[in-house]
Amino acid sequence: MENRKQKSKLNKWIVFTSMPFQMGVTIYLFYRLGDWLDVKYAVEGGWWTKGLTMLGIVVSLYQFIRQANRIGKDE
Amino acid sequence: MVNLRRALLILAVLLFAVNPFTTRAEEAHGHGDAPKTEAEKVNEHIQHHLQDDHYFTLFKKGEEYVGFPLPVILIDNGLKVFSSGKFHEGNGVAEVDGQYYVNYHGKIYKTDANGSLTFDEHHHPTNAKPWDFSITKNVVGLMVATLLLFWGFTSLAKTYKKGSNNLPKGVGRVLEPLVLYVRDEMAIPNIGHRYKEFMPYLLSVFFLIFTLNLLGLTPIGFNVTGNISVTLCLALFTFIITNIKANKDYWKHIFWMPGVPVPFKFVLAPIEVLGMFTKPFSLMLRLFANITAGHSVVMGLIAIVYLFQRELTIPGSIGVSMLLTLVLFFLELLVAFLQAFIFTMLSSLFIGMAVEEHSHDHH
Fold it and tell me: What gap in Å lies between CA B281 and CA A18, rounded to an integer?
């Protein structure tokens, strides 16, 4: 059982390689939502886009930290 | 010291090779109506290779694609089956049972006898599309891979049938360690004691992607795993299996996160739901992007033969092209395995996260 744990630790780093894609997709989706809202409500200066893109970054960071914690917890 | 000098020489050749390439590309962009430059032709050829097609192209001779037509299967007021060779006769319009079809950039549209298409402002045809179940180049690739795997694994199974202590022969010698590798390195560490339920899926996905990636490196010209529909489908399977097999803990962590104050639970739920979708999405994108990039770069490097004859002379351009392609080809062999490995690894990790039993002490 100890041996198995050791191996799983080595393999877990791979999950980090998918993180950029995940963050990118999250941020992009928030950006699209903001863009759509700006057009729909004809907001001057694109504040929905700006605000929601920033929120997207925060959310993607949250997802990143949560997954990292989860992997850390198993060790 | 000799090594260093050699490395510098190679670097110089590389820089020399890349520099004129970029200037040429800029030149090509300058004038729109002029006859196609070599670079544009190469680009067109690469684009053609990357896309799925109703015609199996083996190579290109002048302006003509040489290969064989594949069957077209349409559902449009009943089943219609004909050879895609019909699109290459006459004016490019295929007539079947009084209905006319035209093949525009790999997509089949309904049309009239003259093959007229109407376009919207983005230059996409607005003609109606029939349901297309054709055996395209990618479908042929999938079939070939399936047959290869079927043959490989039945021969492996036969050796076990003979007796428990038989060593696998032939292709089985390669397959057996890989099967064990998937089990011991991916399934067991990530999923735990329930790993057996998911082995059929993980093995299928691993060997299918690996075989298709390797087929893509042969000169036959398959590009199956570099097609986003194929990777979408594979990722979708992981998504479905993860969510169907998920236990109560998994759903609880998504919709009602334990260990945080109640208002936050409402904030976190949509974020977690979003995460459910972005995980398989990243699987889809990664495989597609890696294989597409690999194919483009290999073909681009082969194109050095045609693009740099003036600068490097014919033997020089062939030599540089061969050397660079060879180096990249070995890298692509690694990528072929690595992408299959990562896809399977992450699938097992996502499944493992969904089925793991939490001991609720550390929340």
Answer: 10
Residues with Cβ within 8 Å of residue B290, at least 6 apart in sequence: B335, B339
Sort out which chain A residues have CB atoms less than 8 A from B190's CB and list them: 8, 11
CA distance B323 to chain A (A): 30
The pLDDT tens digits of the residues spanning B211-222 come to: 999 999 998 888
Determine, for residues B286 and A21 on separate chains, whether the beta-carbon distance falls below 8 Å.
yes
Question: Is B16's pLDDT higher than 70?
Answer: no
Q: What is the pLDDT of residue B151?
A: 94
Q: What is the pLDDT of residue B238?
A: 95
Q: Which residue of B has its CA nearest to A56?
A: B271
pLDDT the model gives residue B5: 53
Sign for the pseudo-dihedral over CA of B66, B70, B76, B79: positive
Greater confidence (B10 vs B173) lies with B173
Q: Which chain B residue is nearest to residue A57, measuring alpha carbons? A: B271
Q: Cβ contacts (< 8 Å) between A12 and chain B: which residues?
A: 349
pTM here? 0.81
Rounded to the nearest angstrom, the minimum Cα separation between A45 and chain B is 27
Q: Are B320 and B55 in contact (CB under 8 A)?
A: no
The answer to whether B138 and B231 have CB atoms below 8 angstroms apart is no
